[in-house]
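RETRY 2/3 - previous attempt timed out on the joint model. Re-submitting the same 809-residue input unchanged.
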Amino acid sequence: MAKKRTVRTIHQERTPVAELDAFTRAHNFEEVNCGYTEAEAIRESERCLFCPDPKCIEGCPVSIDIPNFIQKIGERDYRGAYEVITGTNLLPAVCGRVCPQENQCEGVCTVGETLESVAIGRLERFIGDLAIQNNWINKPYIQPSRSSNGGRYRIGIVGSGPSGMACAADMAKAGCDVTVFEAFHEAGGVLRYGIPEFRLPNTVVDAEIDKLKELGVRFECNVLVGRLFTIEQMIEEMGFDAVFIGTGAGYPTMLNIPGDSLNGVLSANELLTRCNLMRAREFPNVDTPLPLGKHVVVVGAGNTAMDALRVSMRLGAEKVTCVYRRSKVECPARAEEVHHAEQEGIEFNWLTNPIEILDDGEGNVRAIRCIRMELGEPDDSGRRRPVTIPGSEFEIETDEVVYAIGTNANPIIGQTSKLKLNKWGYIATDKTLMTSIAGVFAGGDIVTGAATVIMAMGAGRKAAQGMKAFLGIRDIGPLRRDHSIFGIDAREHNFMRVRVAA
Amino acid sequence: MITSDNSAPVLTGNRPFEILRREDYSDVTYMLEVHHPQMARAAQPGQFVIVMSHSDGERIPLTIADFKREKGTITLVIQAVGKSTLEMKEMCQVGTHLYGLAGPMGIPSHVSSAKKVICVGGGLGVAPVYPQARALKEAGAYVIGILGYRTKDLIFWEDKFRAITDELIICTDDGSAGIRGFVTDGIRQALESHPDTEEVIAIGPPVMMKASAQATKPYGIKTMVSLNPIMVDGTGMCGGCRVKVGEKVKFACVDGPDFDGHEVDFDDLMIRLRRYKEEERVARERWSESCRMSTAAVGSEYATVSA
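RETRY 2/3 succeeded.
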């Protein structure tokens, strides 16, 4: 670098990214965000200050060496940038799209203290897409693992979502024979059934799964673990040396208000699964139907709610309304998603709580009865608690109500194994993510409750680390920068080891 | 044991889910025996599967009507009523493969230690009640079978039931075989001669299960029903199959499919089953239209019909 960059010398404005215009995109499933061009990516890479103490790495749940890959983009060494990212993150094209970067790497970016932060997510996606186009794969030399009986270690992964994929990749790279089991007929988990095409095209998911297959990972669809065979059987009878459970928190919550079971009331999971996985938007060319609501009301304001709102719009609803009991400030969805939804003409009713769904006399939804709220004192989560305004009830005419108010633990593994669960039904694990059964690990939403794709991937990788330690495989995975000096962990800088040795 | 033949996991190799045997019981009812050794080992009475006949197909829940562990097959009995089941009736010939088959799903039926049990099957429900009746018989119960059909021509599995029941009552709506009347008439008749019956299991269309539960209620006999609402995934993920049981919302796919018939809100179930009536009609009409257009229609053509 010739001259040291400072906040004063870099491009002051964040490089904008091309987006489909709101009117066009609201009626198709094309991806909204077009991604950076090469020139745009290079310009944005020039905004990184290469801080000596990069906060962004700490902000990243999987500790990607962000300044390093951005530097490589600046040097036009895209393949090098890809190698840096995939050293820790398996799915740059996915994470660049769906990570809530504003709360992670970009949220702590030094540039962001004075200007708009460096668009790390967009740069990551640029590299991820380039890798897919050029068929790059970071496939290290894999030395086959040796189990006690001489063969390779066999690893079973339950669930093909982000946590399962991350764990599978790490174990495959450690030389294990990895099989991923998926209950649906297509792999990908929430990336497939949940996140809609306009945010994460299926082609991207396919490409990422193909890369896993190239690492030697096998995918077995149509397998409902727990019922077809149990976790215990995998260990005791089927010859798996270790198992990872990443089944997610898919059991949708209903509101428990009158009218819940009317036709036209459905969970966001059902709407999204029908639309994304089952391709109901092509009905009747495909067989799964999804009757069109004229006026769709979505309850909730998380990322899933945003997806449900925007999917409903694209399916052709005349009007789409969001109902949320808190205000826009407290809404858990990414700011970008809310912004996109607003651009697309979705109406938001903040501080509104549904109290009843009304019947048309034939078992269908006619309207939703709501009450206005105002913000009171902060609650346990630190957000101001919404309280009802008496007498402010009103009705919204609607023929479809979608609940996007959260999910609970999927009960199947709990029903069919002796695994210890916590009081909410999630799987209990120790620090290494090992469950109450030796050799069985769990991670992602089934341990933490609903979270993000990148958190799940982080958990999958952490479980893989625990798994390798359990099996006695030397962990040759890339270590976090500055975390080890001469192979001694940074936390041991006080010469503990030296003293022990003496 | 799952060991030896299973060291290479589950479904690798050739295309799975081959149809090994098929039998047609009437114009609309057909039986498929599908190859899936692992599922045949795991399946228990009361469980169901999700079937997809082709990549553009629906995921349809079907109760497992029988399983043969030695032969490695599961048996499905299907009634051609909607587009998918009509299409499967054409496509699913011996030697063909299902596109997807996941299961066994749901909590297995509790095989009680009751000494005297009545197993009621109405129409297509005759098939799923069979494994339960057999399990109860094997557990040493005195099993009374009551099978209801619309008419004589639709009767199937009478011989299978004769082999595993101690008494068998056949009911037909038109009186063309057995007693004339509904299964509820059979239930009343059986309860009169066997007041010591401890449990009733009723499987069939919702109206029939509702009527059966009403018929046993005065006697205070525990009555289990198996619900088959509209589902997508069958793994507790979409909530489409939610049913009201004793004022609580349950998901039939993971909390059921068996529930106490005296607690189930059948009216709610029947309304929810009508959710996609219009779409079902559209799909069916389109399907029969395309059949007329290409009278020799077979499997592979369906995908291109829309073009």
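Chain B has a mean pLDDT of 85. Closing ticket.
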